[in-house]
Amino acid sequence: MDVVTFGETMLRLSPPGHERVEAADRMDVRVAGAESNVAVTAGRLGAETAWLSKLPASPLGRKVAATLRAQGTTPEVTWTDRDDLRQGLYFLEQGGEPRGTTVHYDRQDAAVTTATADELAPAFVERAGYLHTSGITPALSETLAATTADLLELAQETGTTATLDVNYRRGLWSHEEARDTLEALFPDVDVLFVAERDARGVLDRTGDADAIARGLADEFAFGTVVLTRGEAGALAVRNATTVTQPVFETETHDPIGTGDAFVGGYLAARVDGGDVEDALAWGAATAALKRTIPGDVALVTRADVESVLADEHSGIDR
Q1: Which intervals hold domain Carbohydrate kinase PfkB (predicted)?
Q2: Of 5, 181, 213, 257, whose CB neighbour count within 10 A is largest?
Q3: Consecutive sets of 10 residues in the chain, 318 residues long: mean pLDDT of each?
Q4: Active site residue: 2, 165, 198, 260, which one?
């Protein structure tokens, strides 16, 4: 197994167009979760991937698993039939300025919040090249914070490269709570992905982008730090060397999941033998493609990404 991810996946319900949830009489239903997004993307780009989680043994839980399998990853799921545990949902209202896009979560008592490392097929982690999770997962419950720590520790013990995307969500916890929890996990993390805004706001870092990435790498002994910078592109520090990558021009239809697409593209390139420079380019190209696709998942192919990269190198105006 090349890449195993661990985290919550929800169902996303969206009214058509820019309608409000309260006025909608129908909604689109999609499967959405940071870690499963990464697994699907990397899988579609050639990596062998699996997603570890816990779901209710219900039609909604089965929909999540079936959709992820159809999209290109193996859902390695612990099922529960407890009546008090359910499938998490979120509602997305697309809106232009000044209203903006709004998310309404309905994830209380989701089955995944009770998942322990022992019930999540740890053998998948032991055999994987990479284990990926995000800062969303330990924010969801004390149990998941402990489970995340256990799986990252297992990855270190078995030689699996552990990657973590800070992926801060202000509705889940404060900057201080996130910083304390995540920094306790960092010793077992090999590759850190973090948006520059989160490095500054959550991890309390100062200086320019290069100084932030180098400071994190030095303090926590990360093998690689990848700093995503929005329109400014991305930057990575590995072995005291800095590599930069600009964004690719794109027409945005749905920005949700862009960061997950970047990570999925990055990991797929590394699995395929690419260096950090290659991986940043694949991540940026995959992220640009995701913004043209409705839903949270980058339903792309290797040919799609290679086309973006080839056009950029040839100077073609897309």
Answers
A1: 2-295
A2: 5
A3: 98 93 94 98 98 98 98 96 97 88 94 96 94 98 98 98 97 96 98 98 97 98 97 96 96 93 98 98 98 95 97 53
A4: 260
